[in-house]
Amino acid sequence: MSKIPVLEIFGPTIQGEGMVVGRKTMFIRTAGCDYRCSWCDSAFTWDGTGKDDIVLMTAEEIWERLYEIGGDCFDHVTISGGNPALLTNLIHFIELAKKKKIQLALETQGSKWQDWFWQIDDLTISPKPPSSGMNTNFTILDDIIERLTEKNNVFSLKVVVFNEADYEYAKLVHKRYPQVPFYLQVGNDDITNGNNEELLQKLLAKYEWLIDITMNTKEMNAVRVLPQLHALVWGNKRGV
Amino acid sequence: MSKIPVLEIFGPTIQGEGMVVGRKTMFIRTAGCDYRCSWCDSAFTWDGTGKDDIVLMTAEEIWERLYEIGGDCFDHVTISGGNPALLTNLIHFIELAKKKKIQLALETQGSKWQDWFWQIDDLTISPKPPSSGMNTNFTILDDIIERLTEKNNVFSLKVVVFNEADYEYAKLVHKRYPQVPFYLQVGNDDITNGNNEELLQKLLAKYEWLIDITMNTKEMNAVRVLPQLHALVWGNKRGV
Ligand code: SF4
Ligand code: SF4
């Protein structure tokens, strides 16, 4: 059985972002990303610094570890990265989780399709705005959105916003796929700040800014604007 | 045409709570409540202090006012109270809003049924825990949940938690209606505090407490735990 490169397994905790914000869940973080976002908050998944922490695990081993730390206290698992969509063999874990009646969430930037996307209960496609330094391949993104829409999958788009250019990009994405539930998220450009009180004030000020501009944009009515709840509660701490 | 007692109309702003947390919306607050919760944050809707601010409005007048302040910048309206479920004639506004292609959210404690519940897109039933000083009539609540479930309405349950007894009550409600999406919300028992920084720290500490106990309760897996986002951003300020 092929193995999945895993960097972190933790929980139960709350999902801090997006379409199931607040949901009790376990987290699995896979290694590897095809992007290099300037503000990546999980660069250890791809920049070599986390290399020695990568564990190659079978689907069964991942399940055992989840059960070992989560016990009976979970029914939902979030797969995060890196970009988990690089891993075709994630299907083994997804099918195992389904058998165990576990609901699944997954986030990816939308640079690569996997057939197992159709089996994710809460799928978030999060294309990256200009401040990331990355370019969106809209041919691929169009195709992903079309495949998901065809099968009536429940999924959402999320764009993280750091500045006005990012906001313009978010408007463009929402306009391109108006039928897809759309989330705006405040960017955290202070990912090394260990002063939680200072970080909190900054994040809330940026959240208020994002709310303000969204409220005044008529092209952005059917949207939800959210902070990262885990950053408000725990700052930049990992594994909570 | 019969008139609706309105206390506040404001927005666009974000919905700070519950099933559509973060959603861009306008707010209408109706007057009157059949409850007297000890920690009610809108006691002015029923304790006489807001009496002189009540305006009796037709559905058309409410719509005109919404459009006057919101312009083209909204497609969603939240009806709040007091208990808007006391007002049978709200149907006139609901039908008008539907004609204008506006989505509707509404929150009520679940003490009274209205046939127009079926027409609300995002309906939250929020029965009150022991700390409120109120008693839940479970015969009425059972009936409301049954009627909504029958017609496959999208709706949710939300319980505000101030202490351990409230949490036990929340467990009981979730167990009674396991198929209904369930939200836990941090109570704000500091509703007159004007020191926003102090309030913020208190609310976040209580949120972390509520997350902690929920994570360790196996009867509370399929739940979402949320703060009130507007209280984190704007403190106890009204009309934002
Ligand atoms: S796509 Fe995500 S994991 Fe990859 S570099 Fe960007 S932020 Fe980091
Ligand atoms: S039901 Fe709501 S509006 Fe009525 S007293 Fe209780 S908290 Fe206040």
UniProtKB/TrEMBL annotation, chains A, B:
Residues annotated to bind substrate: I14, Q15, G16, R29, S80
EC number(s) stated in the UniProt entry for this protein: 4.3.99.3
Gene Ontology BP term (one): tRNA queuosine(34) biosynthetic process
Residues where S-adenosyl-L-methionine binds: W39, C40, D41, G82, S126, P127, K128
Binding annotation for Mg(2+): S42
Free-text comment on the cofactor: Binds 1 [4Fe-4S] cluster. The cluster is coordinated with 3 cysteines and an exchangeable S-adenosyl-L-methionine. Binds 1 S-adenosyl-L-methionine per subunit.
GO MF term set: 4 iron, 4 sulfur cluster binding; carbon-nitrogen lyase activity; magnesium ion binding; S-adenosyl-L-methionine binding
Catalytic activity line of the entry: 6-carboxy-5,6,7,8-tetrahydropterin + H(+) = 7-carboxy-7-carbaguanine + NH4(+)
Family of the protein in this entry: Belongs to the radical SAM superfamily. 7-carboxy-7-deazaguanine synthase family.
Oligomer and partners: Homodimer.
Descriptive protein name: 7-carboxy-7-deazaguanine synthase
Protein's organism: Niallia taxi
This protein's encoding gene: queE
